[in-house]
Amino acid sequence: MTVLKISIRAGERIFVNGAVLRADRKVTLEFLNTVTFLLEQHVLAPDETTTPLRQLYFMIQSAIIDPKCAGPALEMARSSVVLLRSTFLNATILGDLEVVEDNLKRGRHFDCLRIIRRLFATEDAIISGARPISTDPIVSQAEEAMLAP
Q1: What sign for the dihedral angle of Cα 133, 136, 141, 145?
Q2: Whole-angstrom distance, CA of residue 134 vs CA of residue 149
Q3: pTM, 2 dp
Q4: How far apart are the first and last CA of the chain?
Q5: What is the pLDDT of residues 66-82, one digit of tens each?
Q6: What b/e readout covers 115-140, taking b as 16+ CB neighbours within 10 angstroms?
Q7: Is the dihedral of CA 113, 109, 78, 65 positive or negative?
Q8: Using the 8-state DSSP alphabet, how is residue 32 labeled?
Q9: How many CB atoms lie within 10 A of CB 44?
Q10: What are the backbone angles phi and psi of residue 46, rounded to the nearest 5°?
C-alpha cells in the first residue's frame, strides 16, 4: 500500500474528491487510498484565467474540484487542447499539449495541471513579445516573425 503524505499550513485549504477542507492548524494528512486533490496554492481563481493556457488549466481544475461538472468541463478542455494545438507554434508548448491531451484521455487530470502550470512562463513570454522559448530553430523564427512589429 502506498501512503501519500501532504502537509497543510494553518488556514490553508485542500480540495479532496470534491470536498473543501480547511486546516485550523498545521497538519499532515495521510491518504491511504487513491484520491483526487488540489492544494489551495495550485487553484486558479476565475479572474486569473487571462490566457489560453490558464483557461485550459481552469477547465481541468474545475473537473477536479467539482466532480458534478467534470463531464462538461473535461469535454471543453479536450476541445480547447485541439484548438490550442492548432494555434501555438512553440515546440515546447505543442509537445506538452500533446502529453496533456493523452493524459486527459487516460484520466490523469492532476498530471495535466502540472504540465500546463509549467507552460505559463513560456506563454507569458510569447504574449508579452519577449523572445519565445523554443528548442526548434524553425519554430523560433516563425514565432519571431509573428511577434515582429
Answers
A1: negative
A2: 20
A3: 0.79
A4: 57
A5: 888 899 999 999 999 99
A6: bbeebeebbebbeeeeebbbeeeebb
A7: negative
A8: -
A9: 17
A10: -55, -35
The closest alpha carbon to 63, from 52, 51, 50, 76, belongs to 76
Q: Tell me which residue has cell 473543501.
A: 20
As given in the structure block, the three cell numbers for residue 55 are 483557461
The residue ranges of DSSP E strands in the chain, in sequence order, are 4-8, 13-16, 19-22, 27-31, 37-39
Q: For the CA atoms of 115, 138, 147, 114, what is the dihedral angle to 10 degrees?
A: 0
Q: Judging by beta carbons within 10 Å of its beta carbon (0-12, 13-18, 19+), is residue 73 exposed, middle or buried?
A: buried
Condensed to tens digits (0 to 9), the pLDDT of residues 33-69 reads 888 888 888 999 999 999 999 999 999 999 998 888 8
Q: What are the cell numbers at 52?
A: 489560453
Q: Which amino acid type is present at position 111? A: D
Cell of 14: 485542500
How distant, in Å, are the alpha carbons of 23, 55, 116 from that of 6? 12, 27, 22
